[in-house]
Amino acid sequence: MQDDYLIVAENVSKWFPIRRDLSDIVLRRPIHYVKAVDNVSLKIKRGEIFVLVGESGCGKTTLGKLLLKAYELDAGKITFEGNDISVVKGKKLKEFRRVAQVIFQDPYASLDPRFTAWDVLNEPLHIHNVGSTKEERQEIIFRAMEDVKLIPPEDFLERFPHMLSGGQRQRLAMARTLVLEPKFIVADEPVSMLDLSIRAEILELMFSLKHRRNITYLYITHDLSTARYVGDTIGIMYLGKIVEMGRASDVIENPLHPYTQALLDAVPEPDPSNRFKERHVRITGEIPSPANIPSGCSLHPRCPYAFTLCPVKYPEMKQISNGRLASCYLYEPTVSDVKAD
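Structure (tokenized):
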């Protein structure tokens, strides 16, 4: 049912115009765009972790910012708890931003170096008028710090970010989102800047907070090796479009789209006996520029399964089975073309 979904994006797009010089304007050359997000639809259920996976530059972060209304949509619609947030402004937008928060990738850059931990956590409370007294705000701040394992809180309140380790900085960034008791959090590669030994702790912390605080996540990553263990649903993104979507276990165990197969084949294999097993598919070349996306299926220049139809028209997202979605002509029963030379 629609009520099961906290946030729904329908055919959303975000195109960034490429800066033009004077000669382009005088000669009236057409405006070119970077198609960061192009006609993407997804639904995120209440209390789930939706994992968005793809290479750098595929549009993952831009899509996350669209869901937070940090960017304005160029096309499409986004609803949060059944309400259209695409057009909200003023007071209603401020109310939405209280319940929809973000954890940034780099805790070094996302924390003001001039702020103590108290200042970092008190600022959102001040902006959203949460807590009528200092004692109330202190109670909220202490609870958030205890939830992210910055304990005892008194030992950290007067510290500046440079006085914290990388893991502690990211925990402080997480506590900053929790003080407002959000319903939805966009976690933009929150462990990619951390040591390997700390990553598992932060992921386990996110998982426990999901249950204790009933938080819904959009987890953005390029690391498929962790996606299966933290996510309920996985969406695979390539050049501004989602090419495959389904339950995490289904996508990992039986990838349908050639790009998903290639991403899984790129995951290092720790078991030496499995390193020489047959791979699914190997794509060639570099990812094209989002300012010059190939016609038709954008993967066709790199795909070993490309048909003569692939460069002509982008395949529609089809439901394959058990809620699995994929956009590839390999799963179009009407295609009778032979593999392109």
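Residues 334-341 have pLDDT under 50 and may be disordered. The chain has one domain: 2-331.
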